[in-house]
Design goal:
This is IS110 family transposase. With 349 residues, the chain is an alpha+beta fold. The chain has helices at 39-44, 59-68, 78-81, 91-102, 115-146, 155-168, 176-209, 211-216, 224-234, 243-250, 274-289, 297-309, 311-332, and strands at 5-10, 15-22, 27-35, 50-54, 72-76, 109-110, 256-259, 262-265, 336-339, 345-348. A six-stranded mixed beta sheet has the order 3-2-1-4-5-6, with helices on both faces. A two-stranded antiparallel ribbon has the order 7-8. The protein starts with a strand and ends with a strand.
Length: 349
């Protein structure tokens, strides 16, 4: 590999910008525009070298294509590229900024995804969209019925019962038009539930079919949804040197604001991958609720932590520990070792 040549590629749908820099005597050799069909031909003519790109739409596809040509590819979060851009916002300046950001010794890169990981990610994104649509629909029906003096309890079951009672009640203020609209909304809710159940089955099948996901299922608080999402986000774990980096990448470490030797530690905030964080914390709550009087080391630690800081903070701490454990499983390829009350252990795969 040519260690002295570095390429920055500014991605787009049709028009790309490529910047080639020689690091021996810092100067820009090439900074030009390429059409989409010209990119691979241009990269084939280059010696194997480091290629930096922003992590954006299509970046993982291009990373796989360029890796197949022998290049070493790294993806950079756009927020880390912006400080290195000089002058106006142009494609040429962006491509040069990508190179400069990638050459920083402490730059943090985005893990590359395989086709399998992207399949799992796409499955979860479609599933989340249907869940959001279902929530929107339920909230809308609640609001519409309230305008006619009809109030229902929380949850789908209570809503459906109240809706069908309201539709059968001839004495309320619901007109024929409104009754038809509400009935159509309920039919749409049933269709969304069927679609979500179908996707849940696919997630379950994927968690059993993919070996790393099957290994992650052995960890307490990890089900099919969390296992597949963790594998999609972390891959084989090689992008992180230790488990704490993986948990920080997912947004499960406290934010810090320090100055003048004074450190202020805040909450985890809404950084990282929000849906995966929420699933991990829900799984941690389920572990806390079932810890009971178990005497293994992890359960004793969890009980003492709940007593000190409460269930919510303990759930976040347990989710952090779960990610670190998951990284160790993915990085080493070994099965999870579960400790029992008598001090013995079992390798679960």
């Amino acid at each position: 590999m040519n260690k002295h040549k570095t390429i920055g590629l500014d991605l787009a749908k049709r028009v790309f910008q490529v910047c080639v820099v020689d690091t021996r005597r810092p100067r820009v050799q090439v900074n030009k525009e390429l059409k989409r069909h010209q990119v691979l031909d241009f990269m084939r003519r280059q010696p194997a070298c480091r290629v930096f790109m922003e992590a954006c739409g299509g970046s993982h596809y291009w990373a796989r294509q360029l890796q197949a040509l022998g290049h070493t590819v790294a993806l950079i979060s756009p927020q880390f590229v912006t400080p290195f851009r000089k002058g106006h916002k142009t494609d040429a300046n962006d491509a040069l900024a990508i190179v400069e950001a990638g050459l920083r010794p402490d730059m943090r890169f985005v893990p590359l995804k395989s086709v399998e990981q992207q399949d799992i990610q796409s499955l979860h994104r479609i599933r989340e969209r249907y869940i959001h649509q279902r929530t929107q629909l339920i909230n809308q029906v609640h609001g519409l019925l309230q305008e006619y003096g009809i109030i229902s309890g929380r949850g789908q079951k209570a809503l459906k019962q109240r809706v069908w009672l309201a539709l059968e009640d001839a004495d309320n203020e619901l007109s024929m038009l409104m009754r038809d609209l509400i009935a159509e909304q309920m039919a749409e809710l049933d269709r969304l539930n069927e679609r979500i159940q179908s996707l849940d089955k696919r997630v379950e099948q994927m968690s059993r079919a993919v070996m790393p996901c099957r290994q992650l299922l052995a960890i307490e608080g990890v089900g099919p949804v969390v296992a597949t999402q963790l594998y999609s986000a972390l891959g084989n774990g090689d992008a992180f040197k230790k488990g704490r980096q993986a948990s920080a990448y997912l947004g499960l470490t406290p934010t810090q604001h320090s100055s003048g030797g004074i450190a202020k530690i805040k909450g985890i905030g809404r950084t990282g991958q929000i849906s995966l964080k929420a699933a991990l914390i829900r799984g941690a709550h389920s572990v806390i609720n079932t810890v009971g009087d178990k005497q293994d080391a992890k359960s004793r630690w969890l009980r003492s932590l709940v007593a000190r800081v409460g269930k919510n903070k303990a759930a976040v701490a347990l989710a952090n520990k779960t990610v670190r454990t998951a990284w160790a499983v993915l990085h080493s390829g070994q099965s999870y070792c579960r400790e029992f009350n008598d001090g013995s252990a079992l390798m679960v795969s």
